[in-house]
Fold each of these.
Amino acid sequence: MPVRIYDIAKKLGIESKEVLAKAKELGIAAKVPSSSLDKITAEYLESHFAPVKAPEPPPPPSEPPQAVAVAPAPPVPEMPAPPEFEVKPPTQEVATPAGPISVVTMAPPAPDAQEPVEVKPASPPGPPPPPPSPKVGDKIGFIQLPTRPAARAPERGSPPMRGAPRGMTPAPSQQSRGRGDSTRVMRGAPPQGRGVTPAAPARPAAPSRPAIVLPDNAQVISLKPPIIVRDLAEKLGKKPFQLIADLMEWKVMANVNQAIEEPVAQKLSAKYGFKFEAEKRERGGGIVHAPKKIVERDEGDTPEQLKPRAPVVTIMGHVDHGKTTLLDVIREANVAEGEAGGITQHIGAYTISFPHPERKGEQQQITFLDTPGHAAFSAMRARGANVTDIVILVVAANDGVMPQTLEALSHAQAAKVPLIVAVNKCDHPAANPMKVRQQLQEKGVVPDDWGGETPFVEVSALTKQGVPHLLEMIILRADLLELKANPNRRSRGNIIESGLEPGGPTATVLVRKGTLKVGDAMICGEHYGRVRALINEDGQRLKEAGPSVAVKVLGLNGVPEAGTEFSILENDRAARELAEARAEEAKAIAAQEQRAKITLENLFETLAESTAKVLKIVVKADTQGSVEAIVEALKKIESGKVALEIIHSAVGTITESDVLLASASKGVILGFHTRIDASVPDVAKREGVQIKLYSIIYELIDQVKEAMAGLLDPVLKEVVVGTAEVRKVFDLSKGGYVAGCVISNGRVVKGKIRIRRRKDVLFEGHIQSLRRFQDEVNEVRAGMECGIRIDGYNDFQPGDVIESYTTEKVAAKL
């Protein structure tokens, strides 16, 4: 029986993300809390969360104390015992075939000895007897060849020489002898790792500088690499020579125009009371990565100031699949609902509280956007406002995937928002949840119980079956995203809905960061005002609203558009001045062109500044067969330079939703044997979206190829326009040389040239002077004589060939 990740977390009493982290460490394929594992894998994963054993009590006093090894040495194989020699004084020389050697003998050290003990001579005073001659095969010593001559004789107690066994000290005579004369004999040395190693003398430590401790509120400065000394000095408000002096003191040599490493810049900044952070340059611009949410940190926000916030959820799906009914059931599931006497009003969003599935006793808030259809979703995203953290895709179990389901899926995938599929109407007699899984898997949405990342939850909005489980999945998925915001700052957010009511303009805003308060000076696009009232979905007036909270705002001087960002300024005057400046700027843009249009013909010009070489397309056709044929033909266009992305394809007429999707994704719409709704041309003109209609599929494919090629940068091509042969070299009285030439073919013009001698290219540069007799000319044609002077080159020889060439831009091909 499969076991889910969140079941393991509940059993162990920890959070799901800890279990997922351990699973990733062990190489187990589990990506979301609802991922399932087989029983054996689950037991293996649980075994790595075994409780830590309590420390064993100390042994009773009657037992002898156990010796504790501070740093046990690795086991070393025992060496054969060296041959015995008669004990001699340290200065005794032994005659060997290789020459006399100095013999040092040492007895095994005592257990508590700190250094080797030199054995005194046992013989009485007087000349010692000659040592016995070594037998064949006996080891009499070895010669230590030093890597470099010693600068001075080491003092007694210095570390052993390189290559000496632990516990051995070279003889004094050895330390003073030269190469080929340094010999010592081991006797009675303990095996390595046994016995006590003599302690090395303490070396004088280099004087360390005191660490600079910055206060928590230290000002932060930032630069993009490379970090130039001059730029850093400007940021710090210091003269460059001051920083150069500090660098020289730290043995770092750099002038004002050279770059320094990031740690050095941090150290310099810390000296003057600043905290330095290197800005990360954008890499892989235009490449879409995994939908991983990154904590957005505004200027002035620190990690300590960021607090967890509630997730913002949008419910999307096909019409009549139960979105509204499911929203009503979720609203009723609010366990922290207040008094029932409030007047409920539609503000486009509402917040509920639900028990956290893993942290008992804690209520987790969830904010739902109740905006109708996909229009508001696309409008917000077209203005760069991805305010949604999670999308719930509602699919009826009896109908399966429908055209609007795929449209909603395209919106969610284009926005790179995590997805949870709610398979609704599971109580219907014709319900087939497996069919829904199969259909969505074909569209790239793999269920979590089939090894994918998308949780599928079977619910029934009528019987309320599975709704608590759906809310738990939302909370667990939000935990993985680690959504955070700083509540203690001026608020920022986005407009969800807006309108004009009898009391004046109103706007439903979603606070993304900070806390919105009554009396704040708000600016929203070209509109501004002071917040007069904050009203929630129950009609209650609030004094403030924190991150991920949606409220209706009264007090603006106009009706802003959905998706527009709002912010809070110091006072009404600053808000009014900024709003007026934005209005003038908008009028100036509208005078030229309200929105830059993207067409198949001008893609290269309009996207020249974009780093992304991607052509995004919405395909609509009259039949499903035509759609599949067009999509397959477009996918066969092979190019390693430009990517083709089909963001949506479906059967039917071209609607406003298609235009909004193309506008949000900066793409074009291709229609095949289909028509356009009556209101679409106006919307397309306003949004700057091109719609192309075709009746021949080959014409459609050819124009798409041309558009993709238009995204490529032009290729620079060299064209040789003529050559000249050097016949004689003339020396000028003012210095320099002139090549007397005859134009062999083509023409030579002032510009770029290349000098060849036989097959070798000697020089590339420009013509400084081109003369025909005494006249300065711009070009000389074939068969004529001329004098050519090259800028920066005088080493002419008769027979050299001067090539005149130009560079042209040629349109690139796929």
Amino acid sequence: MTILATVASLPGLSRHSAAAPRVILDFDAGWRFSLGDDAPAPAGAPAAPSATGFDDSGWRKLDLPHDWSIELPIQPAAPSGRDGGWFQDGVGWYRKTFAAPAEWAGQRVWVEFDGVYMNSEVWINGQSAGVRPFGYSSFRYDLTPHVRFGSTNVLAVRVDNSRQKNSRWYSGSGIYRHVRLVVVRGVHVAPWGQAVTTPEVAGDRATVRVRTTVENEAGVQFPVVVRTTLTDPAGRRSGRSEVAVDLPPGGHSEVTAVINVATPRLWSPDTPELYTARTELVVYGMPADAVEALFGIRSIHFDSREGFTLNGVGMKLKGTCVHHDNGPLGAASYDRAEERKVQLLKASGYNAIRTSHNPPAPGLLDACDRLGLLVIDEAFDCWRKGKNAHDYHEVFDEWWKRDLDALVLRDRNHPSVIMWSIGNELEERATPEGAKIARELADYVRSLDPTRPVTAALNGIDPWDGTDGVFAALDVGGYNYQRWNYRPDHDRFPGRVMVATESNPPESLEYWMDAVDLPWVIGDFVWTGWDYLGEASIGHCRWDGDGRPAPNTFPWNQANCGDIDVCGFKRAPSYYRDILWGVGSKLWIAVHAPVPDGKKEEVSWWGWPDVRGSWTWDRHEGLAVKVEVYSACEKVDLLLNGKLVGSQPTSRAKRFTATFTVPYAPGTLTAVGYVADKKVAEWQLKTAGAPVAIKLTADRKTIKSARGDLAYVTVEVTDRAGRVQPNADNEIKFGIEGPGAIAAVGSGCPYSAEPYVGDRRRAWQGRALVIVKSLGPKGAIRLRAESAGLTSAETRIRTE
């Protein structure tokens, strides 16, 4: 005979309870931090920072997200070397004291970390809750056995990033993503236990399937009604389902709701329509738990004949690889930083990103869902064989399954995610062992989510056909810098779907034209659309004696290979890509920085010639200057001060570029584009005068007062006419008043040793950046900029 418990048996639930069934607390604020592993303890106090009674009153107060590496000066002796941008790493401790109300007793208390880099261990009231080696995985711990209800509690976190090298790029150090405390009742939805799919999508109807895993940790059996409600982007109910299940103590059950939606609003990059699936658990008519997921109704399909189709419409992926850092902020993942990155990439024509080479911050995927950007969600940079002494290969065998769980179960409801990647440039890619690992990982991912294809990114090896075993385990073949293998591989495997998971900027035209011409090649992901810290100087461009540091040497700390620089400013290759993709202007003038006679410009595999959108070249009057016009027009005229310099056709055969040699003279350089002899576009460059003033432009004049919202302020040095002086390198000092702080400063100079956390920055090519962070109260933030010999500037940002 089955005996069911009464409502009074479920902790925290009664017929008169008005409390929320699930409590989610933002746990970012109010931490204390100490850098190093030898924090001194007062006499008579516990010696370990993990101990509850440890005195942390002398530690620094801070809020998360936090990256301590970006706060430290770069040093040529830093163990991370040029891979890590010469930033310092080490060990750090975090502690947080919090109250657990008595009414939480009998419930489950979880702490959730979106990411801690790396080798973290968490203690609750002196008891270890667990360890997590991988610095990019999200994870949670059940703190319940050690929580002191009705009293204060101490959470301590040790982060160890001292084992170097462990990354091929800048990793950052610390609790660099968000943290939450979650309180649930004994009957609850399992962690990441709600999965939403759209197996059938048509113009007039769609089927939505919501699978919910329900757990009973209450100790007695309960009858549970699982109620699932869908609402459309306007907040109107789109459908509902109720399923009853009896849960034994310690048991769990997966409940599936199938709901038909009439005339669905489909999700795509152009129309990122988001629905909400709310799942409620009801026991004896009372709410026991509730979770929500945003999702999109959309269909995806991949094959070698039609390529990639979204909602039945063919689409080429205009993609970029994106590392996890946020430039001057380091690895700290502020939601606004992730959102701005997506906005600027979309504005430059991208419709897809690849999260190279690790699980991304949840805030990035949220922004991709909301703004419309497709995602290849990547897990690892290595498997059993490493690329650095202390990278993921050390823990691969023990942790890969749990880390894939964290990736797939966490991210499976995001409509932006269209592929899972199980790895990048694996050392085992041409071995039987690699084929076996690939099959095991791919099959496991499919067991967690069979609705998306699995890929991996493979780079060159001789013989190339040695990669066939790994490719055979994949649904989509990822090709890093291997476009010459597209056709012969298609001849050998006509059913293989291919994508350029990495390509280099100098071959942008070739890679994109292959994607356009070959149906089995579904797109191109350039390395890279957004520049990043670490892998310093891989995109260098220089000539001997130009005053720049040699490649791979200190103080290079940026990769310098991004279409967009670390501050979010467009670089020359981004304007060229605009022409290839037909976004923005149909013209852009690229002026080559003059190279002295007898010198030769050296451009790396990932670099771009030193061309600038500038017609300000002091002391070069009369000297020949090479000028290119990137053009989507049939013909281009180039004029200097109103006089025709020359006229040239532009086409694919001409690489969409017209090239001129122009004797430099100050004034106005104008490119005019024609189609069928009709003027359709114009681009001008004007010589700037001497620098006289500073100009500040905030991307948003109003931000949220809640801690951690950001305003990005562009800093420009201008002449009397308000034009940016592209040669200005003035040091600019910043001051701030009101409910805000300077979170970071920066510039696009890839080899500046200036700190990213501070109150001053030297302009580079006339520009710099200040990132302002809200501190909580509402009011007006006043940011002021000044520099010797320049008129100062001020801007105001409101927090509301």
